[in-house]
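Q: Hi! First time doing this. I have a protein sequence and I read that you can turn it into a structure. Is that right? Here it is:
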Amino acid sequence: MRLQNTGLLIHDEERATQGFTLFSPLMQDQVYLLNMKGDVVHEWTVNGNAYGYAYLLPNGNLLASALAPDAKREDREGMRYILEWDWNGRIIWQCEAPGQHHDFVRLANGNTSFLGFERLSKRAAGRVRGGLKGTEIDGEYILGDYIREVTPRGEVDWEWRSEINMEIEKFPLHDFTSREEFSHANSIFDLNGSGYLISSRRSSILFMIDRETKHVTWSRHEEHWGGQHDAQILENGNLLFFANGFKTQGVGLPYSQVIEMNWKTGEEVWTYRGDPPWTFNSPHISGCQRLASGNTLICEGLWGRIFEITPKGEIVWEYISPYEGWISRGGGNGNWIFRALRYMPNSPQIGGRLSL
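A: Yes, that's right. Below is the predicted 3D structure, encoded as C-alpha cells:
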C-alpha cells in the first residue's frame, strides 16, 4: 500500500467544522466515531459487516448491514440483514435483505430502503450492451439491481427492479468493465419520498426514478466520472458526488474529483482535485459530504483517508485510518473505507451524548 502516516495529520481548529466523524474499515466489524483530535470516542461491533458502511439515525441509533451467519462475502446473492443498534450496541431491529449491497436509507415514514442484487433473466441479460465479451458470471448470467422498501415489520412496501423498470439498452456498460453486473448501483438517495437518485458505477451514469411510475425521469453519463460514488442532492438543489476517474480514457495519469453539478443544466459549478491531480485518486469506493459550514468532507477510500476542505480546496482536517485488515479483492492488507460522515455536536444523532 502507499507509504503514509496514520491517525490525525491536520487539524486547523479555526477553519475545520467541529463534530464527530463516523466510519467503518472495509471488511472489518468495527464502526468508529472520532472526535476532532482523531480519538475514538465511541464504537459499535457489527458482526459480519457487509459493506463497511453505517450511519447514525436522528435517534442516535446506528443503521448498518451485515452478512447472515452462514453467508459468504463473495456470494453477491447471499442473505444479508439491515440492522439497527442502539447507542449501547444492542440490536433493536433487523430485516432480511437478500443480495443487499452498498447503500440503504431510513425514510421519513419509518420504512427502510436498500439496494440488492438479483439474477437477470436470460432475455434481460441479452439486452445488456457493452462490457467485455465473455465476462458474465460463470460465463452464464448477469446480476441486476433492485430497490426494496420494507416497513418496520419487515414487510415489502414497494419495489423497483432494473430488469423491469429500466430500458436496459439505453444504459450500456463501460467498454472495459466486466459483464458480471448490469448497472452496479452504489448509492441510493431519497428524493423526499418522490423517488430516488441512483449512481451506476459500471456505466458512469447518474439517474433519477419516480416512485409512483418507477420510470427513469432523468439521467446523465460522463466518461470522465469514471465509476462515480455517493451521489446526493444538496440543499441548494445541486448534485454532489465523488467521481472516481476509473478507466477513463485520454486523461493521462488517473485522478479522482469531487464534483458539484447543476443537474438541470449539466454545469459543473464546483470541483475539487488534488494538486497535482494524480495525488488524489481512489479508483473505487469513496464518498463526500457537504458540511453546514460550506466545507466538504471527503473519503478517499482506497487509502483510508478522510479529510475536510474549504470551498477553495484548502485542507483543514485530515485523518488516515490505522485500521488495516485483509482485503479479499486482490489479496493483502489494506485500510480501505467505503464512506465517512461527520455529525455536528448539537445534532440529534449525537444528542448530547458526547462533548468535544
